């Protein structure tokens, strides 16, 4: 990646305060090309973006749209050193405990879900289950969400069961994969998250790909909501590709700039996560990134029932200026209905794209 001279006027948004009011020149970098495809042609997509999610990072930011791959990216952006300060109060993804319910309908729903996860992924059930094939009588977006939570893993076998989770957080997904028979390893930069994962008995290293040995090979590598945080996403995938065992796959999921959340809420979309999300991908951009990294897409899996949360968070940012933490208690019925409508249309392939774009790739 080549960096443009920091004084070039085309990279300073004239509609917002100068970002250097809050950050020194050494904290910021201006890039002269899209970090996904390398194209130098782009247009302003959104301006005056703030840290609406955590309210801890000062400054206003501009999001640009690549005219080649359609990715959106921050320019200027924080450097690899200065961006660490933006994560000092960033909440690590936590595992939500499932509340018990006396409702027969809820218990039946969970029994069908657990039956499907047991038969398809080998995940042991903690309670009596119903046959997994009953899931086909439920709305498809429910199955998509269950599969997404297991990251569409193949069934583990004794010779093909090594998994690496990059950006593993507190290890909640690693726990599920381990229960399903995978030998799991994780990487993360958050010391508190790494400590929490290690307390669960998981093998997690503090740091990035430099922690891996050249001989480390994995049958599955997952990046769940990680690639949008990277300064050099193509270089990262290229390095991970060298750690794929023969026949291994890389699973990537990231917010979709062509999804209904971005289209509906714009600068208030909760998944913008300014300035921590450096690039917001589209299907075309993720395909371009994977192709440049030497990966061949074999599947474009879908995520299911998640729009209600996204809409609730985004609506709260737009109305109140902050992210909605207790969305289950405050979610408006109108948003639930709207999200359900989007999900139904997506299931029927009538509407546009999903809120999240995911890809499973293999070495070319």
Task: Write a compact overview of the structure shown.
The protein is an alpha/beta fold. The N terminus is likely disordered.
Structural write-up:
The protein has 364 residues and is α/β, with parallel strands linked by helices. The protein has helices spanning 104-121, 140-149, 172-179, 191-199, 233-241, 260-265, 283-292, 307-320, 327-330, 333-347; strands at residues 28-29, 42-49, 61-66, 72-74, 77-78, 162-166, 183-188, 204-206, 218-224, 244-255, 279-280, 295-299, 356-363. A seven-stranded mixed sheet has the order 8-7-6-9-10-13-12, with helices on both faces.
Mean pLDDT: 85
Helix content: 25-40%
Number of helices: 10
The portion of residues forming beta strands comes to 15-25%
- Assembly context of the chains: single chain
Q: Order of strands across the widest beta sheet?
A: 8-7-6-9-10-13-12
Could you say which overall geometry the principal axes of the C-alpha atoms support?
globular
Rg, Å, rounded: 21 Å
SSE run:
EEEEEHHEHEHEEHEHEHEHHHE
Which class best fits the helix and strand makeup? alpha/beta
Q: Give unreliable regions as ranges.
A: 1-20, 324-329
Number of strands: 13
**How far do the termini sit from each other?**
24 Å
Largest sheet data: 7 strands, mixed
């Amino acid at each position: 990646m080549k960096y443009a001279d920091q004084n070039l006027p085309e990279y300073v948004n004239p509609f917002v305060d100068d970002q250097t009011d809050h950050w020194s020149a050494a904290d910021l970098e201006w890039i002269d090309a899209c970090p996904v495809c390398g194209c130098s042609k782009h247009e302003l997509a959104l301006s005056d973006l703030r840290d609406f999610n955590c309210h801890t990072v000062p400054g206003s930011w501009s999001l640009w749209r690549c005219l080649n791959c359609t990715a959106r990216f921050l320019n200027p952006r924080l450097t690899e050193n200065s961006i660490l300060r933006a994560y000092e109060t960033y909440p690590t993804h936590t595992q939500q405990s499932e509340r018990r319910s006396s409702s027969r309908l809820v218990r039946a729903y969970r029994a069908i879900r657990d039956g499907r996860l047991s038969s398809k992924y080998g995940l042991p059930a903690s309670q009596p289950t119903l046959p997994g094939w009953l899931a086909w009588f439920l709305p498809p977006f429910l199955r998509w969400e269950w599969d997404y939570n297991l990251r569409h893993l193949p069934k583990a076998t004794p010779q093909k069961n090594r998994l690496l989770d990059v950006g593993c957080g507190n290890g909640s997904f690693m726990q599920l994969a381990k229960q399903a028979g995978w030998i799991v390893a994780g990487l993360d930069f958050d010391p508190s998250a790494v400590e929490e994962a290690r307390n669960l008995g998981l093998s997690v290293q503090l740091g990035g790909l430099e922690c891996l040995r050249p001989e480390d090979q994995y049958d599955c590598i997952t990046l769940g909501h990680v690639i949008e945080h990277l300064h050099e996403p193509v270089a990262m995938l290229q390095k991970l590709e060298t750690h794929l065992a023969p026949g291994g796959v890389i699973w990537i999921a990231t917010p979709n700039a062509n999804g209904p959340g971005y289209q509906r809420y714009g600068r208030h979309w909760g998944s913008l996560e300014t300035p921590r999300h450096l690039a917001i991908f589209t299907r075309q951009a993720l395909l371009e990134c994977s192709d440049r990294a030497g990966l061949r897409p074999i599947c474009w899996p879908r995520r299911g029932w998640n729009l209600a949360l996204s809409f609730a968070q985004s609506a709260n940012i737009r109305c109140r200026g902050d992210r909605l933490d207790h969305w289950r208690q405050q979610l408006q019925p109108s948003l639930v209905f709207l999200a359900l409508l989007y999900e139904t249309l997506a299931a029927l392939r009538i509407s546009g794209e999903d809120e999240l774009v995911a890809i499973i790739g293999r070495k070319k």
